């Protein structure tokens, strides 16, 4: 019975998300209750197909949230309304694969990854090229960029010792991936922070972009020095043949991506202002028409539909982990707001309100510590968002937001049980703890730069 549901989540779940979005314009309390009631069996179905770690997290949040709901003494009729608090995030994740698909249908991924394949005299040069191509792709195709770049590098570096190859790949791909997402409007941690703090994405953008580029240059320089002594030697006649790419075509593809991103951001801001929508909903509403329109302009609509349908169906049928996490978090956070326990959690932060730097450091290292035991940054920010809410009146929310974003994304390079580190460990067949140790200095630097910028913005 459950097997039937697990393979057809693309049929059962999207109508609920669609109904939720429609009701943002209608504003019917009755429809909100209906959506909340539908969310309950969704949670059960998703729980059966979720990974073990997400089952544990979801179980803890659900049981704790239910306990706090009972403790609060609220009538049972309030429960459905609590279950929809995180529906915007699930709606966002459901449409995101279409943006991935339009980039793939336009063959941007192939052209940009050609940069990695071009012959380099030493690994220092290869590092900067690989980092740049991964960075550019990750802004649009997210996790797919990580897998794609790692596959290309595994092939390009197959003649090197495994230990060196593993070190190179786990550094360059994870770091570039993290830095690209720091300012991407399609990154869920950025979207959550914008809505949590109430600060415009455009206010965050210049600081996040500055941090991203600064860290990228630092990483390039450091690893160019580290790897420049290792020549990029080939061992067969075939491999000695120079790889030629059409630089004009590649540059044109890059320019198209930059222009597309500018148009996308303009559309998101315009839709948000016209309809007074939060950032997550604005991005969600823009992705589909933007992707379809871009595919039509490129003349790749048939390819886009073919790739997009398959990608969307696969991703939606494997959305169980996030459905469990977000729906259980909705119950937990909404119930927490109705109990005195929230005030107890806020006390240490309020006590430190006269020392803002201490609060920023607490946020940064809370992310890092919890990621080491498998707690997803989304779960962390959901809790921190509630705890820090009163401090937004006395501390610049832009400062706190910088640390919320950069502290969260820094864990993508070191979270031993996280998706990115686990995927890299599987792709390269190396111990995930080695990846964590190797990238820890970078994660500390990334989080600390967020704290520094946040402190300067106070």
Q: Quick one: overall form?
A: globular
Radius of gyration: 22 Å
Q: Tell me the distance between the termini.
A: 55 Å
Oligomeric nature of the chains: single chain
- Work out the helicity level: over 70%
Helix count? 23
Contiguous runs where pLDDT drops below 50 for at least 5 residues: 235-240
How would you characterize the overall build of this protein?
- The chain is an all-alpha fold and 458 residues long.
- Helices cover 80% and strands 0% of the residues.
- It contains 23 helices and no strands.
- It has helices at 2-6, 9-26, 29-49, 52-72, 79-82, 87-105, 108-117, 123-141, 143-156, 162-181, 188-197, 201-227, 237-240, 247-275, 279-298, 301-317, 320-337, 341-351, 356-372, 377-388, 397-410, 419-428, 432-456.
- It is globular and about 70 Å long.
- Residues 235-240 have low confidence and may be disordered.
């Amino acid at each position: 019975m459950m097997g039937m549901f697990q393979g057809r989540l693309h049929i059962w779940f999207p109508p609920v998300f669609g109904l939720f979005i429609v009701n943002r314009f209608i504003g019917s309390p009755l429809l909100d209750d209906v959506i909340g009631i539908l969310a309950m069996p969704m949670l059960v179905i998703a729980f059966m197909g979720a990974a073990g770690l997400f089952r544990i997290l979801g179980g803890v949040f659900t049981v704790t949230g239910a306990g706090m709901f009972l403790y609060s003494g609220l009538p049972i009729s309030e429960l459905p309304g609590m279950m929809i608090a995180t529906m915007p995030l699930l709606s966002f994740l459901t449409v995101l694969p279409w943006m991935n698909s339009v980039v793939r249908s336009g063959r941007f991924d192939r052209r940009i990854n050609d940069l990695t394949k071009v012959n380099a005299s030493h690994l220092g040069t290869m590092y900067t090229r690989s980092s740049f191509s991964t960075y550019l792709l990750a802004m649009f195709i997210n996790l797919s960029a990580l897998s794609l770049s790692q596959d290309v590098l595994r092939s390009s570096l197959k003649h090197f010792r495994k230990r060196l190859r593993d070190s190179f790949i786990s550094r360059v791909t994870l770091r570039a991936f993290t830095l690209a997402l720091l300012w991407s409007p399609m990154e869920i941690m950025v979207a959550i922070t914008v809505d949590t703090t109430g600060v415009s994405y455009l206010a965050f953008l210049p600081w996040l972009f500055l941090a991203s580029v600064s860290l990228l240059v630092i990483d390039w320089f450091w690893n160019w020095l580290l790897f420049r002594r290792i020549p990029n030697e080939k061992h067969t006649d075939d491999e000695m043949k120079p790889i030629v790419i059409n630089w004009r075509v590649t540059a044109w593809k890059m320019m198209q991506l930059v222009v597309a991103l500018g148009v996308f951001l303009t559309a998101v801001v315009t839709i948000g202002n016209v309809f007074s929508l939060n950032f997550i909903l604005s991005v969600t509403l823009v992705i589909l028409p933007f992707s379809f329109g871009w595919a039509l302009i490129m003349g790749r609509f048939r390819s886009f539909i073919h790739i997009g349908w398959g990608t969307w169906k696969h991703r939606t049928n494997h959305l169980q982990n996030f459905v469990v996490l977000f729906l259980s978090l909705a119950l937990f956070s909404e119930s927490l707001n109705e109990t005195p326990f929230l005030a107890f959690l806020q006390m240490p932060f309020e006590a430190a309100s006269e020392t803002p730097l201490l609060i920023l450091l607490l946020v940064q290292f809370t992310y890092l510590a919890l990621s080491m035991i498998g707690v997803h940054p989304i779960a962390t920010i959901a809790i921190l968002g509630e705890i820090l809410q009163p401090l937004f009146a006395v501390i610049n929310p832009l400062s706190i937001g910088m640390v919320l974003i950069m502290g969260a994304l820094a864990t993508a390079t070191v979270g031993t049980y996280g998706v990115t580190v686990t995927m890299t460990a599987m792709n390269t067949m190396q111990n995930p703890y080695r990846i964590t140790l190797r990238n820890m200095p970078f994660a500390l630097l990334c989080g600390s730069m967020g704290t520094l910028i946040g402190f300067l913005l106070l």
